Amino acid sequence: MRLVEFVKYIAVVCFAILMIANTAFSMNVSCKLETGSFDKNRIEFQASEFSEKIRSTSLIITDINWSEKLFPQVSKNFNKGGVTYLKNGILVAIACHRNKCGKPARFRCDKSVSEIKAYLTNIDEQPITQPTQIANEQKAKLDAIYSATSSSVSMTNTATEQTVRLSASASRWQNANSPQEAQAFANDIQASIVMFMAIAEVIEKQPPTLKDRVLGIVTSEIKRLQSEKELLQAQLTNRFSTPIRPTNANLSVSAFRAADTFPKIPFYVPGTNEIGEMLVVPRITDEGYLQYQFDFLDPTATYDKVRDSISIEHKNVDLMIGGLQKVDEWTLVAQENGVTRRVEKTSACIPDGACENKVQGVSSTEVVFQIYEDGSTAGRIQRNKGQFSTGYNMSVESSILLSAYLTYMRDVGSKEFNIGVMSDDEVKDLFQ
């Protein structure tokens, strides 16, 4: 029986190794016993398990459950311990049982300390630099908001105040507590991949001037999500000794399913510590018209998480798409000309012509292009309620992804709506 279980264990380990080998974003560390005694002559780690020891050149892993790591299908005992990986290439492993620790065992690994440190640097979040007290508050909120898989956040406020770049790749799937939870995370990532692939197909059919830039951003998002999926599969398969892979690979993407799988767009309110997510959902009004509801969410709110909503009719979606795309086009113009002045320019107004004279009783929606003193740029969706205006800033990359999503909804979602409102005779007329 033990032989069978051991064979199962070997099979699981081999599967994990193969998964790890297939992705450039994970690193397997294999260590062979050189001196001392240990339960196994060879142990495997993921580079992501290591962390740098404070005021030291060494790497460490603390609170390892050796029983779970070495014999996941055999032993239920809890033999804790840890490792220290010295800069000289020696990994020291210690195992403890019932508060009694054995003698350290020394291993030689196939990856050096410097290689692992380089890997950790590459997958780590981008540095967050903020000189004001708002920084700490924003970082805490960002950590709470972007704990789930979503597009990367890239936010710029003013030249002197703050610059925030954060990757959501450090996702909460890393804290999965069960194979079932890990499986759900894998399915979520796969759903987003399918969504972006559907969007890419639509963007391929657009004019070349639009296709190249937008498709590049969409493709990079697909690659990022695929890499994250592979990393998830490798790490969580190894952790739970159960193959983790998406079970929803063949998803059909309907307009309303798209709204569920398209990542929320991060936004921030300049000059404040207010940040949140924007969600776009297609809706059919009681009168039977298709419109797109832009919900600006504050996930940290206790009661009402929707702080604002903007509805854009389907007939105006081209204006919104064009305005978002101009944010990218004008960014290139600003960079080519070295513009480093505070400038704002409206790239779209819905309804057309209603934004110039703001008067009480008239509402409008603007897409605004912004340049800051350091040359950085951003997009802004602004709601004008009479003479009162509320704006939500987003990165150029987020603007492009949002325009791609709306393009998809315009070309695919509207067809779904049209079929839904056609009479039987009108549908039959399609087949003349």
CATH architecture heading of the largest domain: 2-Layer Sandwich
Total number of strands: 18
The helical percent reads: 25-40%
Strand content: 25-35%
What gyration radius follows from the Cα positions, in whole Å? 26 Å
Question: What's the quaternary structure here?
Answer: single chain
- The low-pLDDT segments are 6-24, 125-170
Q: Count every helix, treating DSSP H or I runs of 4 or more residues as helices.
A: 10
Largest sheet: 8 strands, antiparallel
Mean pLDDT: 75
Kindly report the CATH topology of the largest domain. Answer: Secreted effector protein pipB2 fold
Count of distinct structural domains = 3
Shape: elongated
Class by helix and strand content? alpha+beta
CATH class term of the largest domain: Alpha Beta
Distance between the termini: 68 Å
Query: Could you give the order of the helices and strands?
Result: HEEEEHEEEEHHEEHHHEEEEHEEEEHH
Description:
With 432 residues, the protein is of the alpha+beta class. It folds into 3 domains: 2-123, no CATH class; 172-253; 267-421, Secreted effector protein pipB2 fold, CATH 3.30.2450. 38% of the residues lie in helices and 26% in strands. Helix 5 (179-204) packs antiparallel against helix 6. The longest helix has 33 residues, at 208-240. The model is unreliable at 6-24 and 125-170 (pLDDT under 50).
